[in-house]
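in:
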């Protein structure tokens, strides 16, 4: 109940803040305009509030309260504190910048119809424009309609619930994800952030845009979809292919990649021809030394953290064995193309780069984010011997078993859609016309 009231208070404060911003810029109308009453937080997110009220989130609540909001050392803040700190510090730093070109002291951002070039845009303004385009105008909701069932499919597979085909839990996948967050000699969260930073910068170059376009085109090729059919590719074949490719990618330069491509097992000639443009793009990519180092570090982490290839097996079972449409290449290519058409400025890539750099520049935040991830996904499979992931009584946690069923149930009951509607209302109010996210 306390959480419910806190959320409601936060929502009310947010709505008040949005209403207050710019209020001194408006000229009072001659006749009072009719007041529009926005829906309360309970009405914006009824399923989420209901889950809290009925105690369905108790497992998640216990892990957050007892392991993320507490620390055993007085000189070390709880991990979630540093994660929240970097979010607010970053937003404050970006909001403290001067108005972007085309903006003024009174109107911080340039007019929506005349934004400055992306490299000169203010990040906060660009974030608002992007949310307006994708959520307020509803042009990115088709992508969400695919991402949501993808997330649901992965959660159900791990927990063995909902849409899971065999109803068998696969918490070994949670253990593999947790290993990726280990901040060990092998895996560093900073490596993943470096990869995001370098790749998003590369994706906005001519070579990068051509690579993205060729990946999108490849996803529509019948030769590839036929090759990835379960009658043509077994799970063991898929694992064998991964075992062949991962070491190659780790050590590859252009010449090594070409040699490995020519030796790929059981690859039809027609598919080889369709893959050729992508191979040429990857040769150019690997010539970028900073990006190549980031790829090698990330792939090395994946290779060593998931030696049984549980992540690969999950992907095969969801996308190929179960033939789930939301994981199908054709559907993904269509959505990706729609996002490209809508976001022709490249704002999403720009924002991903900005946020990744903000976290990467704060070592404490990187460590706290990695620890938060590892705690939430800890299982007895990967927590044994790890003094950094224990319960308050020193035992081995089963956090993934407590947290992920709660998250799976929330997603199944419309959490993503409710959150988008709440974001839309908090940022833009409820009197600006239709709200596609609030369907």
């Amino acid at each position: 109940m306390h959480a419910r009231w806190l959320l409601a208070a936060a929502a009310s404060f947010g709505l008040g803040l949005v209403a207050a911003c710019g209020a001194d810029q408006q000229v009072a109308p001659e006749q009072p305009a009719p007041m529009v009453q926005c829906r309360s937080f309970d009405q914006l997110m009824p399923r989420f509030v209901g889950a809290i009220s009925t105690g369905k989130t108790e497992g998640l609540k216990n892990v957050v309260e007892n392991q993320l909001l507490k620390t055993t050392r007085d000189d070390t803040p709880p991990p979630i504190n540093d994660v929240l700190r970097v979010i607010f510090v970053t937003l404050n730093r970006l909001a403290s910048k001067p108005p972007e070109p085309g903006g003024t002291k009174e109107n911080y951002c340039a007019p929506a119809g005349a934004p400055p070039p992306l490299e000169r845009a203010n990040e906060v303004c660009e974030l608002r424009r992007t949310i307006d385009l994708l959520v307020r105008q509803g042009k990115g909701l088709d992508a969400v309609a695919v991402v949501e069932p993808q997330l649901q499919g992965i959660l159900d597979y791990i927990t063995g619930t909902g849409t899971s085909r065999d109803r068998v839990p696969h918490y070994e996948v949670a253990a593999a994800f947790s290993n990726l967050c280990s901040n060990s000699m092998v895996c560093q969260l900073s490596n993943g952030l470096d990869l995001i930073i370098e790749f998003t910068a590369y994706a906005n170059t001519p070579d990068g845009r051509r690579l993205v376009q060729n990946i999108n085109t490849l996803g529509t090729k019948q030769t590839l979809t036929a090759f990835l059919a379960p009658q043509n590719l077994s799970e063991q074949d898929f694992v064998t292919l991964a075992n062949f490719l991962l070491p190659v990618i780790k050590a590859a330069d252009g010449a090594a990649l070409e040699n490995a491509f020519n030796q790929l097992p059981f690859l039809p000639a027609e598919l080889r021809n369709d893959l050729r443009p992508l191979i040429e793009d990857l040769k150019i990519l690997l010539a970028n030394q900073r990006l190549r180092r980031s790829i090698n570090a990330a792939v090395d982490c994946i290779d060593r953290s998931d030696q049984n290839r549980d992540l690969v097996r999950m992907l095969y079972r969801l996308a190929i064995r179960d033939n789930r449409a939301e994981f199908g290449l054709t559907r993904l290519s269509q959505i990706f193309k729609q996002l490209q058409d809508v976001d022709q400025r490249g704002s999403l890539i720009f924002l991903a780069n900005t946020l990744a750099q903000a976290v990467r520049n704060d070592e404490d935040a990187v460590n706290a984010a990695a620890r938060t991830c590892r705690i939430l996904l800890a299982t007895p499979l990967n927590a044994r011997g790890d003094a950094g992931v224990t319960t308050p009584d020193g035992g081995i946690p089963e956090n993934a078993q407590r947290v992920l069923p709660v998250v799976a149930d929330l997603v199944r009951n419309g959490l993503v859609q409710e959150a988008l509607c709440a974001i839309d209302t908090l940022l833009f109010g409820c009197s600006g016309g239709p709200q596609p996210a609030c369907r």
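note: DSSP finds 22 helices and no strands in the chain.
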